[in-house]
TrEMBL record:
<feature type="site" description="Could play a key role in the communication between the regulatory and the substrate sites">
    <location>
        <position position="70"/>
    </location>
</feature>
<keyword id="KW-0320">Glycogen biosynthesis</keyword>
<keyword id="KW-0808">Transferase</keyword>
<dbReference type="InterPro" id="IPR023049">
    <property type="entry name" value="GlgC_bac"/>
</dbReference>
<dbReference type="InterPro" id="IPR011831">
    <property type="entry name" value="ADP-Glc_PPase"/>
</dbReference>
<dbReference type="InterPro" id="IPR005836">
    <property type="entry name" value="ADP_Glu_pyroP_CS"/>
</dbReference>
<feature type="binding site">
    <location>
        <position position="175"/>
    </location>
    <ligand>
        <name>alpha-D-glucose 1-phosphate</name>
    </ligand>
</feature>
<comment type="pathway">
    <text>Glycan biosynthesis; glycogen biosynthesis.</text>
</comment>
<feature type="site" description="Could play a key role in the communication between the regulatory and the substrate sites">
    <location>
        <position position="109"/>
    </location>
</feature>
<protein>
    <recommendedName>
        <fullName>Glucose-1-phosphate adenylyltransferase</fullName>
        <ecNumber>2.7.7.27</ecNumber>
    </recommendedName>
</protein>
<feature type="domain" description="Nucleotidyl transferase">
    <location>
        <begin position="18"/>
        <end position="287"/>
    </location>
</feature>
<feature type="binding site">
    <location>
        <position position="110"/>
    </location>
    <ligand>
        <name>alpha-D-glucose 1-phosphate</name>
    </ligand>
</feature>
<dbReference type="InterPro" id="IPR005835">
    <property type="entry name" value="NTP_transferase_dom"/>
</dbReference>
<keyword id="KW-0321">Glycogen metabolism</keyword>
<dbReference type="InterPro" id="IPR029044">
    <property type="entry name" value="Nucleotide-diphossugar_trans"/>
</dbReference>
<dbReference type="GO" id="GO:0005978">
    <property type="term" value="P:glycogen biosynthetic process"/>
</dbReference>
<dbReference type="GO" id="GO:0008878">
    <property type="term" value="F:glucose-1-phosphate adenylyltransferase activity"/>
</dbReference>
Length: 423
């Protein structure tokens, strides 16, 4: 571990509640989110994106959690019910799934991130946590929230915002802040077209990670006032945080202070896998000999729903028809039958038939790759049946005509795309 926990009267996480905002579509993932919300997208061979925020909370000592869902939530809710139903109320634990259900108004679903919390204010009050940790459910990282909670209490801030330095040209998609020598946030701009640089380092900006800590009573008071403001967009980044910055009560928490790293991880890791290119790259990075994210770290495990599946199987051993996987992650239930995989990630139940070749491929669960198919630089959606002899990744013009091809040359393949080709 790269951090040390301060010693106080006891762990604050045990009396805190994690509220995960998981209602977004993630439209930049294109067809991957046609049927599921971004937090429900598969990642890393057997997990979903949302498992990282929830696992961070669990590993930090938080035992009360809630997940607010909205966009096409069935896949996400089913995963949460299967994989996160072990928290028990008789142990003062709770896990609530909170779909948008017009609890406050008969006319409004969740209007923004702050409104998603406000509409469940009665549930929060019933649980009466001392602090609320507000989390985005769509990022990949390992973090000990206890460290941030301790800083929040010590500083006496109204809100503590987790932040990290990013290249200035990449900061347009974040809330960008300026801080003084004490860490107090003096300026906060949501998704600026021209992000301000850091003093002495104009090519980098300080970006909000969408992770906030509040004292619960203070936040609920702010949410009630925000809900009554017709001019508000009811969003943390656009409304709640800027107001508290203007009042001088917002404090910054540096991610590197609480980022969890194993001995194999050389630097803090955080990824927004919000585009097809970023999603492909983050998954393929896991096939490196020493990947930037250590998913084998048993000191900080990533909890998930573990499907019951047999071991992976490799069969046939003759020239040109040998079951092999090099520099790849192969999940349970996979069959590599006289086929070859290099630098690829095979999720549960993938079947590669004889003479097929895949390279730099992210194959989601239950993908079936036909004989003699060749796939390179692809993301293949769940349950897709790749026909015999299909070649992807060798002819950019043909790839763009048939599939979703990114500027970096990554092809996203769905079953509906293949069905159109066969029609």
């Amino acid at each position: 571990m790269s951090y040390t926990r301060p010693r106080h009267e006891g762990p604050l996480a045990r009396s805190a509640m994690a509220f995960v905002l998981a209602g977004g579509r993630g439209s930049r993932l294109m067809e991957l989110t046609d049927r599921r919300a971004k937090p429900a997208v598969f990642f890393g061979g057997k997990t979903r994106i949302i498992d990282f925020a929830l696992s961070n909370a669990l590993n930090s000592g938080v035992r009360r959690m809630a997940v607010a869902t909205q966009y096409k939530a069935h896949s996400l809710i089913r995963h949460l019910q299967r994989g996160w139903n072990f928290l028990r109320p008789e142990r003062n634990e709770s896990f609530d799934i909170l779909p948008a259900s017009q609890r406050v108004s008969e006319h409004n679903w969740y209007l923004g991130t702050a409104d998603a919390v406000f509409q469940n204010i009665d549930i929060i009050e019933d649980l009466a946590p001392r602090h609320l940790v507000i989390l985005a459910g769509d990022h990949i990282y390992k973090m000990d929230y206890e460290v941030m909670l301790q800083q929040h209490q010590d500083s006496g801030a109204g809100v503590t915002v987790c932040c990290m330095t990013v290249p200035r040209q990449e900061a347009t998609g974040f809330g960008v802040m300026a801080v003084d020598a004490t860490g107090r946030i003096t300026e906060f701009v949501e998704k600026p077209a021209d992000p301000p640089g850091l003093p002495g380092d104009p090519d980098r900006s300080l970006a909000s990670m969408g992770i906030y800590v509040f004292e619960t009573r203070l936040l609920l008071d702010r949410l009630r006032r925000d809900a009554a403001d017709p001019a508000s967009s009811h969003d943390f980044g656009k409304d709640i945080i800027p107001r508290m910055v203007a009042e001088g009560t917002a404090q910054a928490h540096r991610f590197e202070a609480s980022c969890v790293r194993s001995a194999a991880e050389s630097s803090p890791y955080w990824r927004d896998v919000g585009t097809v290119d970023a999603y492909w790259e983050a998954n393929i990075d896991l096939t490196d000999v020493v990947p930037p994210l250590d998913i084998f770290d048993q000191d900080w495990p990533v909890w998930t729903y573990a499907e019951v599946a047999p071991p992976a199987k490799f069969v046939h051993d003759i020239g040109g028809r040998r079951g092999e996987a090099i520099s790849s992650l192969v999940s349970g239930g996979c069959i590599v039958s006289g086929a070859f995989a290099r630098r690829s990630l095979l999720f549960t139940g993938v079947h590669l038939h004889s003479y097929a070749q895949v390279e730099a491929a992210v194959l989601l669960p239950q993908v079936d790759v036909g004989r003699h198919a060749r796939l390179r630089n692809v993301v293949v959606d769940r349950g897709v049946r790749i026909p015999e002899g299909l070649v992807v990744g060798e002819d950019p013009v043909e790839d763009a005509r048939r599939f979703r091809r990114t500027e970096r040359g990554i092809c996203l393949i769905t079953q509906s795309m293949l069905d159109r080709l066969a029609a």
